[in-house]
Specification:
By secondary structure, the protein is an alpha/beta fold. It has helices at residues 6-17, 35-41, 49-63, 81-90, 102-114, 152-165, 183-193, 195-199, 203-215, 219-223, 275-289, and strands at 71-75, 94-99, 121-125, 137-143, 166-177, 234-238, 245-250, 292-297, 302-306. Helix 7 packs antiparallel against helix 9. The two termini are 31 Å apart. Bound molecules: S-adenosylmethionine.
Length: 307
């Protein structure tokens, strides 16, 4: 993608100057079971989205929670790659992924076999709005999927459910796109950031990315999904300049510092599909390091405190 170039700078400037006028348009199909979409998304490890996965993995890594031998639940797992990355790169010993799309679940279980991880990572067809689960997890992840939900109240219910399923020592991680301020900006951004999907003959991926940028929640909207009652400190990471993604982290109970260590060496990891993905990772790492960090502590009614 090669983000830090003239086009990216133009997008940043336009974003800084823009007033928010773009209303949200929910996804036309919340569940991804259309065959071309499933096929294209199954090729995601060939794209620069691996840099986006590295960001999610790195956020977990930097909090310093136990990952080696730990147990993970991945919500809306799609073709399963982020869940498989939890096992492969952070050494989770048991990973369960759930998605409502049967073809996605089938792809994910095939990918798990291909990655030789089927003993540690399994995928099931389940609606995350009605999760029937009694185990406790060390991490619950929900990546690139909040924008598939009908509204922010539903995301709040999901995060509340996640709170009941995660150990006190565990972590909840949501990463997602953030809706840009205007449709003009969104169109320019999708043409720019999505061009590799056209180059790689992934038309459905391009179309889905386009729809997703309109379905994404703004950071203000997503902050309303933080559980009203929580023993945890919640952290909202909001990139400055071009706010096209965001992350919400529910820290372990009693934990007050967000990051315990520097990023892992993702630039030399084999997670990346290409040199472009490595350079995107480097840009995204800087973006996260310079992002606005907003802390929420629902149980003490300190609703907002900038760090
Ligand atoms: C964009 S994909 C994200 C996949 C993956 N988490 C990632 O980061 O690559 C969103 C997924 O959410 C799934 N989904 C949407 N609504 C769902 C629901 N209510 N329960 C379970 N999965 C759902 C879709 O089927 C789709 O596979």
């Amino acid at each position: 993608m090669g983000i830090p170039n003239v086009k990216a700078l133009e997008l940043i400037v336009l974003s800084l100057l823009a007033k928010r006028t773009l209303a949200r348009k929910p996804e036309p199909e919340a569940v991804t079971d259309q065959s071309q979409s499933v096929k294209d998304y199954n090729r995601v490890m060939e794209t620069n989205l691996t840099a986006n996965y590295a960001v999610g993995l790195d956020l977990i890594y930097r909090t310093g929670v136990k990952t080696h031998g730990a147990k993970a639940l991945d919500l809306c797992s799609g073709p399963g790659y982020f869940a498989l990355c939890l096992a492969k790169y952070l050494n989770y010993s048991s990973v369960k992924g759930v998605d409502l799309s049967l073809p996605m679940v089938d792809s994910a279980n095939k990918n798990s076999k291909q990655w030789n991880l089927s003993n540690r990572a399994q995928f099931f067809r389940e609606n995350i709005l009605h999760i029937n689960e009694f185990s406790k997890y060390d991490v619950i992840t929900f990546t690139n999927a909040a924008h598939h939900m009908p509204d922010v109240r539903v995301i709040k219910q999901i995060l509340e459910k996640a709170q009941s399923l995660v150990k006190d020592t565990g972590l909840i991680l949501l990463t997602d796109l953030a809706r840009l301020k205007t449709s003009k900006l969104t169109e320019k951004f999708v043409r720019y950031a999505g061009r590799e999907f056209i180059e790689k003959n992934m038309p459905a991926m391009y179309e889905d990315f386009h729809n997703s940028m309109y379905a994404a929640f703004s950071p203000e909207e997503l902050s309303a999904a933080i559980p009203s009652h929580s023993d945890r400190l919640w952290v909202h990471i909001i990139p400055r300049g071009l706010t096209c993604f965001q992350a919400l982290i529910g820290l372990p109970v009693g934990e007050t510092s967000v990051f315990k260590r520097d990023s892992a060496q993702w630039a030399t990891s084999d997670i990346h599909s290409s040199p472009d993905s490595i350079s995107d990772w480097k840009v995204l790492k800087n973006v996260v390091n310079n992002a606005e960090i907003v802390l929420y502590h629902p149980s003490t009614n300190i609703s907002k405190a900038a760090a």
